[in-house]
Design goal:
4 helices, GMP Synthetase, Chain A, domain 3, about 220 residues, about 40% helix, alpha+beta, about 35% strand, five-stranded antiparallel β-sheet
Length: about 220
């Protein structure tokens, strides 16, 4: 008589009997274990990936909802001070939150404009309290390398060069630099390396205008 032991689906199987008759039982258990392992590993991998994807989707929807809420609250305040809300960024990292607001005006934005908008927004935010806990409020002009958020922004800068970072890689690339040739519906067409590509505005994570410093220097008479 002999005692045989093998592992099968996380449990131990003991078979007592003569050596010769027990071999098929043992070998069957071993083959089942090795056959099931790849499927269990694959299923666990898929579960982990789906969990990460759903967590990202939930976070993205929450962030988008919060930004939309803040946009609706802040846009009228900025407009009442004869400025335009160019865009805002709601950034969270742990317990630290930053609300970055970009304002624009027909004749440019001054430091006084930023101070007035900051004071007014702070007063309204204290009453409405749309952000839990402490946060840092930043108000500034978009600058020469201004970010582009909306379809209307891209339409305004047709013919200009921009840097683009996509949410998801396309053909192995997430970053592109090219000239805006046209904007149709919610799609931006860029001339990149002598080839026109089409990008959906919703697929763009970040976009900035590339400043033309030569033109600026010519305007100020610094170069001929």
């Amino acid at each position: 008589m002999g005692l045989f032991c093998t592992r099968f689906s996380g449990s131990l199987i003991f078979s007592r009997g003569w050596l010769q008759p027990q071999w098929p039982v043992v070998m069957y258990a071993v083959s089942c274990e090795w056959a099931l392992c790849p499927f269990l590993f694959f299923g666990l991998s898929v579960f982990v990936l789906l969990s990460q994807w759903f967590n990202f989707l939930f976070w993205f929807l929450c962030m988008a909802s919060k930004q939309e809420q803040l946009d609706q609250l802040i846009a009228p305040i900025v407009a009442s001070l004869n400025c335009e809300l160019w865009g805002l960024e709601y950034l969270t990292q742990g317990r630290y939150t930053t609300l970055r607001i970009f304002i624009d005006a027909e004749n440019g934005v001054s430091l006084e404009d930023c101070e007035k908008v900051s004071r007014q927004i702070s007063s309204v935010m204290d009453v409405e309290d749309p952000i839990d806990g402490e946060y840092t409020l930043e108000v500034s002009s978009p600058g020469m390398d201004r970010p582009l958020y909306k379809t209307a922004h891209y339409m305004r800068y047709v013919g200009e060069t921009i840097n683009v970072r996509l949410r998801v890689a396309r053909d192995g690339r997430r970053r592109f630099k090219g000239v805006i040739t046209k904007v149709e519906n919610d799609d931006v067409f860029l001339m990149v390396d002598n080839q026109e590509i089409q990008l959906a505005v919703d697929a763009i994570d970040k976009a900035n205008v590339v400043p033309r410093f030569d033109d600026l220097m010519r305007q100020h008479g610094l170069v001929e």
